[in-house]
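Appendix C: a fully annotated inverse folding record. The material below is reproduced so that readers can follow the format used throughout the book. The structure is listed first as tokens, followed by the designed sequence.
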């Protein structure tokens, strides 16, 4: 009696023979790629790594895509909107989540963003009614920020 176990890897099919319909990364319009050969030169390796590294922009870059001619069909971004950073205490954030989820069938509010938008609109209307006879306050003229020159 032999105590040798069968090799489970011997029965696996070659990955290059996998059907394209089963491979989510396969492209129908491209020819099969040749396997990349690792380079011995460290500078080549460094170049290839930097080419595949994703750009990490600031929060001001959020929502601003590259204008490469390929416009997305539909943006998730609300038209005519601007971003703000909102920090909430954990208990208030948990309360917001609970209220939004449990009242969704009654209010139709599907997201925390929409909940916050409506709450801000309601609070603004109340303040305008109480402190400005129901009229909107005039827009604030923001001074242009001076940017520090880049060090060369």
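Designed amino acids, in order:
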């Amino acid at each position: 009696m032999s105590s040798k176990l069968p090799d489970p890897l011997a029965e696996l099919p070659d990955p290059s023979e996998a059907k394209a319909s089963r491979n989510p990364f396969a492209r129908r319009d491209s020819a099969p790629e040749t396997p990349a050969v690792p380079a011995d030169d460290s500078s080549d390796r460094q170049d290839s790594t930097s080419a595949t590294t994703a750009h990490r922009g600031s929060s001001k870059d959020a929502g601003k895509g590259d204008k490469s001619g390929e416009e997305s069909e539909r943006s998730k971004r609300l038209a005519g909107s601007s971003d703000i950073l909102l920090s909430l205490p954990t208990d208030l954030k948990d309360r917001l989540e609970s209220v939004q989820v449990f009242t969704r069938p009654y209010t139709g509010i599907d997201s925390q963003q929409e909940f916050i938008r409506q709450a801000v609109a309601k609070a603004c209307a109340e303040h305008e009614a109480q402190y400005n006879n129901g009229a909107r306050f005039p827009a604030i003229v923001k001074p242009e920020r001076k940017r520090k020159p880049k060090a060369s």
